[in-house]
User: What shape does this take?
Amino acid sequence: MAQIGFYPGSFDPLTLGHMDIIARAARLVDRLVIAIGQHHGKKPLFAIDDRIDMLKSEAAPLSRKHGIEIDILTFDTLSVDAARAAGANLIIRGLRSSGDFEYEVRMAGMNAQMAGDIETVFLAASPQTSHITATLVRQIASMGGDATPFVPASVAKRLRERFGR
Ligand code: ADP
Assistant: This one.
């Protein structure tokens, strides 16, 4: 059976932590769907189209390297419903901390009850990137800091353009 992974997140912006999970997931699945959740009422830093572009350009080399299809899409439904609609049997999540763990295990448990055919797979964050969060990247960039150590170069460029550095 083909393993199809669904990796949901906000990706606002895409960080090296996300890239670590995407690169490692690409070695485990036959097809990877990266899904940008749209939360109405939450004003994002980057518009959906910008986030799609960031993910597309950074995922393309991994898709070639691993010989798998990596699709980028958006969703505004429950993630289990979006995963099923995308034909996925695995939901991929990254675990950074005990805080992530508490929340993620609850969510995986509830998702398992709603969709017993979809398994959540956790990848432990790599030590080099486990401290990175998109929220802090947004704060650093908006206060004039340099986000280069935390995001792909193309995203750092977009942040500089956005905040005029
Ligand atoms: P953030 O929590 O940084 O705002 P998202 O909501 O887009 O980012 O997170 C989507 C998924 O990526 C979640 O499973 C989250 O745990 C994972 N993730 C985010 N940052 C990292 C990181 N530095 N290392 C590993 N996983 C991460």
Observations:
- The pocket of adenosine-5'-diphosphate is lined by residues 9-11, 15, 17-18, 20-21, 93-94, 96, 100, 125, 129-130, 132-135 (CB under 6 Å).
- Residues 4-128 form a domain with the Rossmann fold fold (CATH 3.40.50.620).
- The radius of gyration is 16 Å.
